[in-house]
Amino acid sequence: xxxxxxxxxxxxxxxxxxxxxxxxxxxxxxxxxxxxxxxxxxxxxxxxxxxxxxxxxxxxxxxxxxxxxxxxxxxxxxxxxxxxxxxxxxxxxxxxxxxxxxxxxxxxxxxxxxxxxxxxxxxxxxxxxxxxxxxxxxxxxxxxxxxxxxxxxxxxxxxxxxxxxxxxxxxxxxxxxxxxxxxxxxxxxxxxxxxxxxxxxxxxxxxxxxxxxxxxxxxxxxxxxxxxxxxxxxxxxxxxxxxxxxxxxxxxxxxxxxxxxxxxxxxxxxxxxxxxxxxxxxxxxxxxxxxxxxxxxxxxxxxxxxxxxxxxxxxxxxxxxx
Amino acid sequence: xxxxxxxxxxxxxxxxxxxxxxxxxxxxxxxxxxxxxxxxxxxxxxxxxxxxxxxxxxxxxxxxxxxxxxxxxxxxxxxxxxxxxxxxxxxxxxxxxxxxxxxxxxxxxxxxxxxxxxxxxxxxxxxxxxxxxxxxxxxxxxxxxxxxxxxxxxxxxxxxxxxxxxxxxxxxxxxxxxxxxxxxxxxxxxxxxxxxxxxxxxxxxxxxxxxxxxxxxxxxxxxxxxxxxxxxxxxxxxxxxxxxxxxxxxxxxxxxxxxxxxxxxxxxxxxxxxxxxxxxxxxxxxxxxxxxxxxxxx
Lengths: 322, 298
Description:
With 322 residues, chain A is mostly helical. Helix content of chain A is 80%, strand content 0%. In chain A, helix 2 (36-44) packs across helix 3 (50-59). Chain B has 298 residues and is mostly helical. Chain B has one domain: Orthogonal Bundle (MetI-like fold). Chain B contains eleven helices and no strands. The interface between A and B is large, with 57 and 46 residues.
C-alpha cells in the first residue's frame, strides 16, 4: 500500500458518499412536490372530508417542514426503519427487505451468466476480426442490443411459458405455496432476460479491448523479450484488456439492477421492481422513496467496487510511489 | 454502447471527402448494416406517418365489436377486451412512440447540447462545473430517474418528454464536449479568434457546423434509446396512458390474454423491435463512419 493509492481510495469513497446524500435529498424532494392534501386525496380518494384529510396528514406527519422530515427519514433509514406505507399502513421495511434479497440474487445470477457469455463471445470474435462470422455475430449482437428488455422477456415468455409450458405463468405463486425447487425455477426466465440484456454490450467491448491489447506495442515487446505465450496473454494482454472491460461490466451491473424492475413486472416475480411499479401506481410515496434509495445504495456499492478494482488493475496508479 | 472501434467489411474509411451532409449520407449507405437500418427505419416511418390514414375505425372507439373478438373481415385483427378494433389501434400506435422521444431528444440538444457547446469552448471553471453536474446526473440509471419523475409529477406527455430528455442529457453533453475538444485547436477556429469574433459567433458559425456529424449520429442513437425507454414505461403502465393507442400500451393491455390471443401482443412488439433495430443499425453505422473519418474524436 502506498500513500497515493490510499488517498485515491479515500477520495472515491468520499465522492460516492456525497453522491448518495445527494440522491437521497433529490428523491425526498421529488416525493414531496405534491401538497400534503393532494397526497391524502390521491390515497383516500376524491370524495373525502376535510377532517379525514387532516387526520391523514397528521398521522403521517406530512404537515411538518420538509427539512425536518428529511432529517428524520434519513436518521430512520440508516437504522433500517423505512416508515409506514401511506397506503397499506404496514411498515415499509417488512415488504421491502425480503424482496431486496430476491432481486439482488436475480440480478447477480443474470449478470454472472451475461458477463461470462459476453466475454467468451468477445474473445472468440477478437481472433476472427474481419471474417464473415465476425460480421454476422457483431450485427446479431447489435440487433439484440437494440431490443428493449421487455421485448426480450416477452419473447422468452411466449416460447417457454405459453408455447412450451415449461414454466409457471406467474412466478409469485411459487413464493406463496411452492417448495425450494419451485422457487428456484422461477428465477430462470427473469435471469435469462437480464443475461441477454447485458451480453451484447459486454461482448462488443470484450471484442474491441482484446483486439486492441493484442495489437499493442507492449504485447509485441513482451513477445520479443522471449516471454512465454502464456505470460504474454495473461500478464500483458488480458490484464490491459481488462481495464475497459471492468468499467463496462460496472455500468452493466448497474443496468442489471434497474433491469430487475421490468422482469419482475413481466414474469410476476415478487421482487423489489414489481413493488416499485405498484407503489408508483398507487401513489405510495414512502415505499417508492425507500425502494429508490435501496437501489441507489446497491448501485453506489457497485461503483465503489468497480473503482477499487480499476485502481488495482491500473499499473500507473498501483505502482505509483514504489 | 457506441464503442465504434470496429470496422466492417465493405466499408472503406477515408473515402468520403470532408464533412457535410452528402458525405454523411454516403458513409451511412456504404455499410451493409447501415443500408438495412435505413431501409427498416424508412419502412417504419411510412407506417407510422401514413398508417393512421388507412385505419378503418377510430382507434379509441369502444364496443365496435364484441370484446375479444377473433380476426374477421370487418375487424382484420379482431377486437380487444373493450371491443376496440386492433388493426386501427395498431396503425395509430406508432405516433406517440416516435413523437415523444423525438421531442425529448430535441429538448436534450437544445438545452444540454448547447450548454456543453458553449461551456467546452469557454473551458475553465464553467466547463468543470457543467461536467461535474452531468456526471452527478448519471449516478442513477435512466429507468430509475424516469420512474422517480413520473412518481412525482404523474405520467403526462409533458413529464414523459422532460424525463426522457433529462436522462439523455449527460450522454449528449459528453458527445458534444468530445467533438468540440477535437475542433477547438483547429486553424479555422484560431483564425476566427484572431479576427476578434465574439464567443457566440465562433461557436455558432465556426465550430457548430463542424461537429454536426457526430451530433447527428448521436441524435439518432438517442431517439432509439428514447423509444426503448418510453415503450418500457408504457409497458409498465406508467407511460402513455389509456385510452390512447400506443404500441407499448397495447402490449401492456393485452399481456393478460397472451395465452389466447398472442397476436395482439406480438404485432406491436414486432413493430417496436423493427423501429428500434432499424434506427440503431443506422445510427451505429453513422457513428462508425464519423469516427473512422476522424472528425469525431471522442
